[in-house]
Specification:
By secondary structure, the protein is α/β, with parallel strands linked by helices. The chain is built from 15 helices and 20 strands. β4 and β5 form a beta hairpin. It is globular and about 75 Å long. GO terms for molecular function: oxidoreductase activity.
Length: 501
């Protein structure tokens, strides 16, 4: 280990969470850190998801860092290309490139109880770090269901890919396409590919609630004003944030109040879908908000086109070139596109992290993800997750949650510095348990638990380990500083071996 490079902090991932952590480290005066990224560029999910029509469903001025406002967003809801360009801009503005280690996939991270540091094996070598910040994100590893006959379909020349791994070399013109899934990606993909595809068959396991996407170009005058008077952009962001904070109680305490929103969503559907049979297929049977409310103004019109069929059943198998739904409906296809989400409650990075007791994070979380304040896990000293368990949002911007976690990270490192050299903080199991009991108790009243749906928010045991059952203001207060009473202070027992810096 004496030959390995050693750093104060190793950040895993270069999406919003990883870049945000890197910026915060530099602003705290910490420059001894690296950002380990498995791909060849920054951007995270906004690099990986480049499918046709890809855009954000959170307003641009709210879906950006408060410390890096962008007065030149071109649209109220910006597309993937502009968000990725923004992240590249943040990387350059805050001089993060010297810290980037592109093409360094983390294969394993092991806690060394003697040295009180992490040994990190990457695809390009090994290094050690006092602290690891995992910012791999919940939307980074695509999930494709195990469909009988899918492999044979590919071997026979059929095309298969996930929305997050779009094959831009494959021409969909005139092709018979099966779109599997009706989540946030699928409702953007279908309108984008419908005009060129010969036939689109949408396999819908569960109908989503869809509201109009009030998107428009941001005028040159608005952008000029935001550049000349930055407070106007700050005020715009504040207004967008405040509206969403006021909506939270309907999701978390009073789901019955969402009935009016359901009526608006049904009116939005009826405006484009005139066929009663199709409208029946597309009408959800659960309370709006139980799954993420989707935003689109062209999804329903695309489904009404003559070259689009909606199958109100999930894809069950593939026989030759025939895609067969669970209800027996068949469709001849040339390509199958999966918009089936990601490994959210079973994040693959957890299988690659070995803690103080010699078990992986995945083993520690076998009964469900649990962390202290969405950040640290019992048995994993000096390990912090950005966008960890129960930090997701159902109606607002994840950047708000990320920035709160960056506050917690900064104070965590200050506490370590105050405690002295060769020290680690390990969350007490009692503190982790108490925090999660409070979170899960609050979760019972939410629309995500009581709304009558089965969503990707829930783990295999039916627990919502994904979302935060409160306002972003509450989370900001809860993560403002580290409470040392919730941690065990671990000190080294022997002198540390020298390492390369």
């Amino acid at each position: 280990m004496s030959q390995h490079e050693h750093v104060r902090v190793a950040v895993i991932g270069s999406g919003f969470g990883g870049l945000g952590a890197a910026v915060r480290l530099r602003r705290e005066g910490i420059t001894d850190f690296v950002v380990l990224e498995r791909a060849d560029s920054v951007g995270g999910t906004w690099r990986d998801n480049s499918y046709p029509g890809c855009a954000c469903d959170v307003p641009s001025h709210l879906y950006s860092f408060s410390f890096a406002p962008n007065p030149d967003w071109p649209r109220t809801f910006s597309g993937q290309r502009h968000i990725r360009a923004y992240l590249e801009h943040v990387t350059d503005t805050f001089r993060l490139r010297p810290h980037l280690r592109l093409g360094h996939e983390v294969l394993m991270a092991r806690w060394d109880n003697d040295e009180l540091r992490w040994e990190i094996e990457t695809s390009r070598g090994t290094l050690t770090a006092d602290v690891v910040v995992s910012a791999t994100g919940p939307l980074s590893d695509p999930k494709i269901p195990d469909i009988p006959g899918l492999a044979a379909f590919e071997e026979a020349g059929g095309k298969v890919f996930h929305s997050a791994r779009w094959d831009h070399d494959y021409d969909l013109t005139g092709k018979r396409v099966a779109m599997v899934g009706t989540g946030a990606s699928a409702i953007q993909i279908v309108p984008a590919i419908q005009p060129e595809a010969g036939k689109v068959t949408l396999f819908q396991r569960t109908a989503p609630w869809v509201m109009p996407r009030m998107d428009r170009a941001i005028s040159g005058a608005e952008r000029w004003l935001h550049r000349r008077l930055p407070l106007t952009a700050t005020a715009r962001r504040g207004l967008l944030w405040g509206i969403r904070e006021l909506q939270v109680s309907a999701f978390t305490k009073r789901p019955a109040q969402l009935g009016l929103v359901e009526s608006l969503a049904k009116a939005n559907m009826a405006k484009a879908i005139k066929d009663p049979a199709l409208r029946a297929k597309l009408t959800p049977s659960y309370r709006i908000g139980c799954k993420r409310i989707l935003l689109s103004s062209d999804y329903y019109p695309a489904l009404a086109r003559p070259n689009v069929d909606v199958v109100a059943s999930g894809l069950a198998q593939v026989r030759g070139s025939t895609a067969v739904a669970a209800d027996g409906t068949e469709a001849e296809v040339d390509a199958i596109i999966f918009g089936t989400g990601f490994h959210v409650t079973d994040m693959p990075i957890a299988e690659r992290v070995v803690g103080a007791d010699g078990i992986t994070l995945a083993e520690a979380w076998k009964d469900g993800m649990e962390s202290l304040r969405g950040a640290t896990a019992a048995g994993f000293p000096n390990w912090m997750t950005i966008i960890g368990p129960n930090t997701g949002l159902g109606n607002s911007s994840m950047i708000l949650m990320i920035e709160s976690q960056l506050n917690y990270l900064a104070d965590y490192l200050r506490q370590l510095d105050t405690l002295g050299e060769r020290v680690a903080l390990s969350p007490r199991p009692s503190a982790v348990g108490a925090w999660n009991r409070r979170v899960q108790a609050r979760m019972e009243r939410t629309v995500w638990k009581a709304g009558g749906c089965d969503s990707w928010y829930l783990d295999a045991n039916g627990r919502n380990t994904t979302l935060w059952p409160g306002t972003t203001s509450e989370f900001r207060r809860a993560t403002r500083s580290v409470d040392l009473s919730e941690y065990e202070v671990v000190r080294a027992r022997s002198p540390r071996k020298e390492a390369v810096r």
